[in-house]
């Protein structure tokens, strides 16, 4: 807010208001394009059987960028535009994934059976625990709670 008031003192309140509105409108139009691009990349990865983890994190960053751009202020606009910039957004998303802030699940097929692996990242300990298992498609679907009750 201090930066906003300083700019208003230098250039006038009306000019500052127009600049804030202009950055919001420009940012939201860029956000729309970047969001559609990220969505199409995620659909391509899903179509090839891959988990679109990078694209999911980028979509969350784009949502944050939208919120920052709609918040009045030049500092929030700057941060929003950083998240909109594809290069920086991809770097930040890769860093989030690398540090293990997310848990991922991969699903694939092997012969007539499917398999799943769940990787649980523990950034504090620096090691990964991998749990592997197999499943088959059956008519009835049982939940984890149902399986625990059978034990």
What this model shows, in words?
This protein is an alpha+beta fold and 151 residues long. It has two domains: 2-98, no CATH class; 104-150, no CATH class. It has six helices and three strands. Helix 2 (13-47) packs parallel to helix 4 and helix 3 packs antiparallel against helix 4 (74-84). The termini are far apart.
Q: Strands of the largest sheet, in order across it?
A: 1-2-3
> Ends: how far apart?
59 Å
Estimate the strand proportion: 15-25%
Number of distinct helices: 6
Summed over residues and divided by their number, the pLDDT gives a mean of: 76
Number of strands: 3
Principal-axis shape equals elongated
Give the key terms.
2 domains; alpha+beta; 151 residues; elongated
Write a concise synopsis of the structure shown.
The protein has helices at 2-11, 13-47, 53-70, 74-84, 86-98, 144-150, and strands spanning 104-110, 113-122, 127-135. It is of the alpha+beta class and 151 residues long. The protein has 2 domains: 2-98, no CATH class; 104-150, no CATH class.
Helix/strand layout:
Elements: H1 2-11, H2 13-47, H3 53-70, H4 74-84, H5 86-98, E1 104-110, E2 113-122, E3 127-135, H6 144-150
Antiparallel strand pairs: 1-2, 2-3
